[in-house]
Each structure stands twice: as C-alpha cells, then as structure tokens.
Write a structure and sequence with these properties.
It is built from 7 helices and 5 strands. By secondary structure, the protein is α/β, with parallel strands linked by helices. The protein has a 5-stranded parallel β-sheet with strand order 3-2-1-4-5, sandwiched between helices. It is globular. The mean pLDDT is about 90.
C-alpha cells in the first residue's frame, strides 16, 4: 500500500462511522455530489448510485432516494439503468448541501424512519449526524473499496475538506440562537 493511501486511510478513519450490519430499512438515500460539466455522473456519484442500487436489489428498502440539485435526475436515470424501477425512486432535486439533503429527505419520510445513507467513508459521520438531527435513524454505508482509497490524492483532498466542513458545522451550531 502506498504511503499516500495509508495517509488517506488514517485521515479518514475518524470521519467514517462503523458500518452497521445489513438489515431492512425504510429507505435508501444516495447523497449527491457534483456531476461532470456535461451532466454525466462523476466516479464519486457513480460509486454511490451503484451501492444504493445494490442495497435496493438485496431488498433492504422499498424506496431509493437520490438527492441533490442538478444531480438527482442523472442519478435517477442511472439507477433505472441499473435495474431499480422508476416507481421505487424518489428524486429530491432541491438540496445543495448535505444539511439540505437530510432536511429535504426528512420532509419526505415519516419521523424516525430508518435510512441507509450512501456516500463515501469520509462523508458518512457528518451525514449521519445531520440525518439524526432531522429525526431520522441513519445507517451509514459506503463502498469498502471506495474511490477515496483507490485515488488517494483525491481522497486526501476530500478528507481535508470534510474536516473543514465539521468545523463550519460546529461554528454554525454554536452561533445558533437557543430557543427556550
């Protein structure tokens, strides 16, 4: 294993919650990421969609949510290509951030719903926190051989950005007014 790949694994470890055992949930939520300039799915989004479709094919949830402004449509189209019936797909195309992914999905699901949250390992701890904050029960999952490890230069950049996102989220939480 290259030194850079080892560094990415070490840097990502605190960001990736333990993978829960596979079990049935109320929904699968595939988090979006930017598409390519031509609108096609990037490797990071393709990885997420493929895993979400695999979970659906295993019968782990009756609904596949694809979430993200600009990418929900292409993600839904890819999920259909991979065998998920269009009737089982909900495309949430308004969210631009992970926080909005969680909020908008929570508006479409009953409170307390259990959801497989699909992303890359570096993104799952914060995503799970945000989904829990919205009243859902997240089950975080990522491809065990994620692109973040196969392309360590990108993985290190993504992990670094994720640490900054945690600091930003913490500062917003501290600055939020207390409602009594």
């Amino acid at each position: 294993m290259s030194a850079l790949r080892t560094l990415v694994k070490l840097a990502s470890k605190p960001l990736a919650p333990p993978r829960p055992p596979l079990r049935e949930a109320d929904a699968i939520v595939v988090l979006g990421a930017p598409t390519a300039p031509d609108g096609s799915l990037t490797a990071i989004v393709e990885e997420r969609v493929r895993l979400g479709c695999e979970l659906y094919a295993m019968g782990l949830a009756p609904t596949l949510f694809v979430s993200g402004k600009g990418e929900a449509g292409p993600m839904a189209a890819r999920a259909i290509e991979l065998g998920v019936p269009a009737s089982a797909i909900t495309a949430e195309g308004g969210s631009r951030t992970t926080e909005e992914n969680a909020r908008y999905c929570a508006e479409l699901l009953p409170g307390g719903a259990s959801v497989w949250v699909v992303s890359q390992p570096f993104h799952l701890r914060r995503a799970s926190y945000l989904f829990r904050r919205e009243g859902l029960r997240p089950l975080p999952i990522a491809d065990e051989d994620s692109i973040q490890f196969r392309v360590p230069r990108l993985g290190l950049r993504w992990a670094s950005r994720e640490y900054v996102a945690w600091v930003h989220a913490a500062l917003r939480t501290l600055a939020a007014p207390v409602i009594r």
